[in-house]
Amino acid sequence: MAEQTLTPAAKGLGYAGLIPQFIALALVLQGGEFGYVALAAGFGYAAFIFSFLGGVWWGQSLASGRADAAAYLVAVLPSLLALALFLPWTFGWEWPGPALMFLAALIALSPLVDRWLDLGRQDFMRLRWHLSLGLGALTAALGIIGIEPV
């Protein structure tokens, strides 16, 4: 059996990180005056988490002492991509549905970067997949709803 390195608090707080997106989805589905605000908040939360992952990759790469320029380049991409996905909304273009769908896919696939960087133990990677697929699915649900005006 693989060594367990994550504490119950780390796991619990990790899963608790899905709660804001559940709330955003519930408010959007409920409709009413908070629907569009919840949709924007859901995008913002997903973008923040995606940017946070880039910071994690940067820190883990630095701590490993074996990272090259490619690892640092990959680590800054989440922030830049999140910003790029936000721009259509600021210009009043096709938003938020398409941006949410792209963000959902990027989040759901983000553990592949952890594997590429070879920075995660088995229990960490299991948690990363659970959280990334969970947040990706919730964000995709918001994106599907967001394709139609709220």
Strand content: under 5%
DSSP strand tally: 0
DSSP helix count?
7
Element pattern in H and E: HHHHHHH
InterPro entries: DUF3429 (IPR021836)
Protein name: DUF3429 domain-containing protein
Keywords: Membrane, Transmembrane, Transmembrane helix
Concise account of the structure shown:
The chain has 150 residues and is mainly alpha-helical. The protein has 7 helices and no strands.
What are the main properties of this structure?
7 helices, single chain, 79% helix, 150 residues, mainly alpha
Which helices and strands appear, and what pairs or packs with what?
Elements: H1 8-16, H2 19-30, H3 35-64, H4 69-91, H5 97-109, H6 111-117, H7 122-146
Keywords: Membrane, Transmembrane, Transmembrane helix
Transmembrane segments: 12-30, 36-58, 70-91, 97-117, 129-147
Pfam family, one: DUF3429
Q: What would your notes on this structure say?
A:
By secondary structure, this protein is mainly α. The protein has one domain (18-146). The protein contains seven helices and no strands. The protein has helices spanning 8-16, 19-30, 35-64, 69-91, 97-109, 111-117, 122-146. Helix 3 (35-64) packs antiparallel against helix 4. The protein is globular and about 50 Å long. The protein starts with 7 loop residues before the first helix and ends with a helix. The mean pLDDT is 91.
